Amino acid sequence: MQPSPQTVLVITSVEDVHADLVIEKLNERRVQVVRADPGDIGTGLMFDVCLGDDQVEWAGRLRTPSRDIALEEVGAVYYRRPTPHSARFAHLPAVEREFAVTEAQHGLGGVLRNLRTTRYVNHPAAINAADYKPAQLRVAARLGMAIPPTLITNDVAAARKFAAGYGPIIYKSFRGAPRSPDGQVAAIWTQRVAEETLDDSLAVTAHLFQKEVAKTADARVTVIGRTVFASRITTPGGALDWRSGDWEQLVHDPVDVPEQIIDCLHAYLDHFGLVFGCFDFALESTGERAPDRWTFIECNPNGQWGWLPDSDAMAQAFADLLLEGWWP
């Protein structure tokens, strides 16, 4: 007989304010919460699991310095932002480091991705599939959402032709800058690109160019389960990328999301097997008293939301979603 689920497993790093907010709501419901970072594998994170004979689900225990739980008792997994295994094994020579990282990912990671659990928010495989901008834009377009004309290329002639036809154009990175040796992450903001600056250096790797949307504001729409939270974001200077300025100067206002867009967002999440996503839209004025045109920019399947005005309600929505279907 399988034990009854009674635990929410939160997979993330030690410093994660978003996880803190959700854990606080779970604690208020008197839910047992275990927080674990796969990057702590070693004496800081021990595990043993078995499968076979009459046992058709992985069964065993996960042990942190403060918790010891049966994995069969996990009712839901909140998958946030664990520390990369590469940081854990940074002291090893290159070949040994690569081997240890791969074994940890496929061993411990493989177990944590395949628990007998009610709900993953979100499942890491779904996050990975939905993390590619070409996939995001294709699905958004097929669902009927407006997207900017987009070119992905490493051909300077194609880029120049695109700029001549759609200018002004912008460039954005697919994933941002890699971590520095000291663990710091640099940002690559969306930026305008002039046709004359495009040169043969584009051949080195892939680039994403889009027609610039003449936006008057941005919208961040956070969907948690079936609950939708939306904020209109404006910057005093009208920055091309609102993330690049002083976040204290951002102006957040409630905004009503058109029903057809809401339907598309739910369909988008369903397509990727997600139950949560942070969507970014550019809002373009279509005239006085006319509704704004909503242009899909991207969806972060593991996005940040703790800085938004509705963060407390969002944390509650996460707790509700994690407990749905198995918690009394």
Give the arrangement of secondary structure elements.
Blueprint: E1 7-11, H1 17-28, E2 32-36, E3 46-52, E4 55-63, E5 68-70, E6 74-79, H2 85-88, H3 94-112, E7 119-121, H4 124-129, H5 133-142, E8 150-153, H6 156-166, E9 169-172, E10 191-193, E11 207-211, E12 217-224, E13 227-234, E14 251-254, H7 259-272, E15 276-284, E16 293-300, H8 311-323
Parallel strand pairs: 1-2, 1-6, 6-7
Antiparallel strand pairs: 3-4, 4-5, 8-11, 9-10, 9-11, 12-13, 12-15, 13-14, 15-16
Protein architecture, described:
The protein is of the alpha+beta class. The protein has 3 domains: about 5-120 and about 315-325, 3-Layer(aba) Sandwich (Rossmann fold), CATH 3.40.50; about 125-150 and about 215-300, ATP-grasp fold, B domain (D-amino Acid Aminotransferase, Chain A, domain 1, 2-Layer Sandwich), CATH 3.30.470.20; about 150-210, 2-Layer Sandwich (Dna Ligase, domain 1). About 25% of the residues lie in helices and about 30% in strands. The protein is built from 8 helices and 16 strands. The chain has helices at about 15-30, 85-90, 95-110, 125-130, 135-140, 155-165, 260-270, 310-325; strands at about 5-10, 30-35, 45-50, 55-65, 70, 75-80, 120, 150-155, 170, 190-195, 205-210, 215-225, 225-235, 250-255, 275-285, 295-300. The strands form 4 sheets. Strands 14-13-12-15-16 form a 5-stranded antiparallel sheet. Helix 1 (about 15-30) packs across helix 8 (about 310-325). The relative contact order is 0.15.
